[in-house]
Amino acid sequence: MSHVRSYLRSLGRSRDSMRPEHRPAAFSLRGRQWDLLETVFAPLHAGTTEIVLDLLGLTETEPQPWSGTFLEIGCGTGVVAVTAALAGCERVVASDINAEAVANTALNARRHGVADRVRAVHSDLFAGLPDGELFDTVMWSSPYVRAPDGYRFTTPLERAYVDPGYAAHERYVAEAPRRLAPGGRALLHFSSRGDLARLRRIAEREGRQLEVLRRHAVVDRGDPVEHFLIDIRS
Ligand SMILES: C[S@@+](CC[C@H](N)C(=O)[O-])C[C@H]1O[C@@H](n2cnc3c(N)ncnc32)[C@H](O)[C@@H]1O
């Protein structure tokens, strides 16, 4: 396995992101201030949150007014969900399996005056959402590095970095399209640090098609990495 895909390397990044110098109580991203709680994915350390904003067209430089309803799975600090609300989405649901990420998103929604439109929910993927709640956009910036099947998480933060056996990806690929309102889009942020061939096999098994809508190439700590915005179709 190439070193960029190594789950041990990703777990090392997770540990590194817990160092106090990477854990300011608040940070600045895209001209806004954001709270960061203890065990939550740190956007500045990881660098992927801004890439997700760009892939979605949620940027200040090329404003693309958003509307409709937006579900963010795995919201972390809530930067993407809150930005979607600020860009015009009328109803945003932000969920995370890490309870502290849910609290963090609620804090940032209040900080930016959109608490009335952003509902933060503690949930394993879709499990904590009411049956039949549908969205125009469903999005997950996933922990795209695959860990071995039996890997047991040692901290809540590790779930932001790796997915053992791609079990969570498999559920997401199967379930995300079922949460769409007519004409909606089920999206996934993935990268070449993950195993796209394996994800495609999972999609095929689940009767889904994957289409890469947008790509964004970066050099990540010396390694060329490509980020993808993937549309999951049934
Ligand atoms: C790569 S981080 C992205 C965080 C945030 N969206 C951002 O871009 O800064 C992935 C997030 O997915 C969450 N996550 C992992 N497995 C999950 C699951 N089964 N259900 C819900 N959230 C999950 C993690 O806790 C983490 O917050």
UniProtKB/TrEMBL annotation:
<dbReference type="InterPro" id="IPR050320">
    <property type="entry name" value="N5-glutamine_MTase"/>
</dbReference>
<protein>
    <recommendedName>
        <fullName>Methyltransferase</fullName>
    </recommendedName>
</protein>
<dbReference type="Pfam" id="PF06325">
    <property type="entry name" value="PrmA"/>
</dbReference>
<dbReference type="InterPro" id="IPR029063">
    <property type="entry name" value="SAM-dependent_MTases_sf"/>
</dbReference>
